[in-house]
């Protein structure tokens, strides 16, 4: 009895399964029902998928094959049922109209339509997750990438799906379908494809076309910034990664010519239900706001996805509004500028990549000089006030904050969204929080901040903010009424990002992202594609006289006799102060305090000519803006080491790089007590190991 039960549970023997596999055709799937279709292992499913791709390449109708596989799978009997009867010599035909084809197709087809071009057909509610960079054009229908909708007739968008962040997915979006027959819809789609594809490609598209299907054109993309970043050893993997040899097929070769690679869906960006509902509510509030534009403050612990949430929110808002204002208060992981800045930007274009792919010029920017405001909160708050004065309240404002929240693992995967008309005040109060409390309106009203005090509530549960409002500038009609904080609405988002728990891994990862942001900014120095790259030491720098600009080291006290040693080969902020520095015959001109002033851009002090008393500055800032620069600030943000260590075309000793450096000297190490650790890294570039050129 036990043996009989075991026989029912055991499947066909291995020899029986091998004979069944050998009896199948080589390209097209067999129409004979197979019991083990759903029980295939991952290797069997991969072989099955490869056969489908081979059948597609041979010209077979993959939709019909998918329908047949689904029908034969549904007719499969359970294991406990009686054995199947012997198959007849003539298979029973299955009517195509008896059972409709499933709506979700298993494999969206990809077809090469020219050098560096591929055509992608996406049925509704399906996505294509990929890594790499490409230019996406929606030829018919509507797709969504990172929350931004791309419809037919809209310009192409450059998409950057990099290894350093979650991979992006092109999702087909259900669009409004007019009352037209299938023949009329195909005729309309064929007309739209005529200017982009040849006759054979159009015929293939129409053969595989289905209602509510979106047709996407993927094109090879190469920018000067990407070429510049990938020119350094070890950084090419960020954009492209080679596939194993056993995974290479016709689809892989087609996508490789474009510069992308298909990835698993689980590697793409996944948003929780709370995130999607919060995004929908924020978009509705921004579109329906009557009294003023909302201020959205996003806060939370480190590595929970605040920056990703902000990018997705910006793209969602740009689907409904023309522009979005963005106040950057995260010094370590800035979105549109090099690190160490507090800036205000007006965003009109979607964000379809990581920060180092979309460096932009802010509307207002101040260089703080460090990646953290620890032990210097007051200056940090004053800079935020100064930058916030430029906000005109004409569009929604998103405030990105630093990862203040520490401890309490149960509360770590939370993103808190605060919506108010003066959300900046909440940010100032968040500075002193050492853990994440429930930031309810009552808690914020009753809790004193570092530089603001709680006020007694007045009508409508609001209070006057005289001590903060006196430093802000408003329009004439707004000055008549006092600034009243009417409270905020708290929305908590449960993040599903897998964040790093160790401080060591987090710091290393953040340093790589900061170096990539600096390289992305320096990529603006390169000529446009297809011109070849120019090494940084081969570009012509600007000559700045000593008496034309003032100097200041923001992050440390440096003796006046050593100022030029600190400035040489350093990352410098090009700023504009109100004081007139002209009139000094000699130089350098040193500032006693760090000013809060506008920053117009950044550059590298490539060298100092002591005989002619000139600074040699390499910067992408236009000459018309450089004429107003009268101050150079040097902070803790440094030039990436790869810039110094990989100077191609030089013979002999590489400038600014040395292997003979005494780490035992006082002040030679970056951190007190870290001299022993620095000794183990001898031979690597040290931030202060720079040759001073006269």
TrEMBL record:
Family matches, as PANTHER family: CLEAVAGE/POLYADENYLATION FACTOR IA SUBUNIT CLP1P (PTHR12755), POLYNUCLEOTIDE 5'-HYDROXYL-KINASE NOL9 (PTHR12755:SF3)
Listed EC numbers: 2.7.1.78
Keywords: Acetylation, ATP-binding, Isopeptide bond, Kinase, Nucleotide-binding, Nucleus, RNA-binding, rRNA processing, Transferase, Ubl conjugation
Protein's cellular compartments: Nucleus, Nucleolus
Gene Ontology CC, one term: nucleolus
Quaternary structure (record): Interacts with PELP1, WDR18 and SENP3. Interacts with LAS1L to form an ITS2 pre-rRNA endonuclease-kinase complex.
Start and end residues of each NOL9 C-terminal domain: 539-640
Biological processes, Gene Ontology terms: cleavage in ITS2 between 5.8S rRNA and LSU-rRNA of tricistronic rRNA transcript (SSU-rRNA, 5.8S rRNA, LSU-rRNA)
Family designation: Belongs to the Clp1 family. NOL9/GRC3 subfamily.
Biased amino acid composition, Basic and acidic residues: 672-681
Region (Disordered): 69-99, 672-694
Domain NOL9 N-terminal positions: 119-242
Recorded catalytic activity of this chain's protein: a 5'-end dephospho-ribonucleoside-RNA + ATP = a 5'-end 5'-phospho-ribonucleoside-RNA + ADP + H(+); a 5'-end dephospho-2'-deoxyribonucleoside-DNA + ATP = a 5'-end 5'-phospho-2'-deoxyribonucleoside-DNA + ADP + H(+)
Comp. bias (Basic residues): 682-694
Enzyme class at the top of the EC tree: transferase
Domain Clp1 P-loop: 300-407
Function, in words: Polynucleotide kinase that can phosphorylate the 5'-hydroxyl groups of single-stranded and double-stranded RNA and DNA substrates. Involved in rRNA processing and its kinase activity is required for the processing of the 32S precursor into 5.8S and 28S rRNAs, more specifically for the generation of the major 5.8S(S) form. Required for the efficient pre-rRNA processing of internal transcribed spacer 2 (ITS2). Associates with LAS1L to form an ITS2 pre-rRNA endonuclease-kinase complex and is responsible for the transport of this complex into the nucleolus.
Protein name: Polynucleotide 5'-hydroxyl-kinase NOL9
GO molecular function, one term: ATP binding
Pfam families in UniProt: CLP1_P, Cupin_NOL9, NOL9_C
Chief localisation class: nucleus
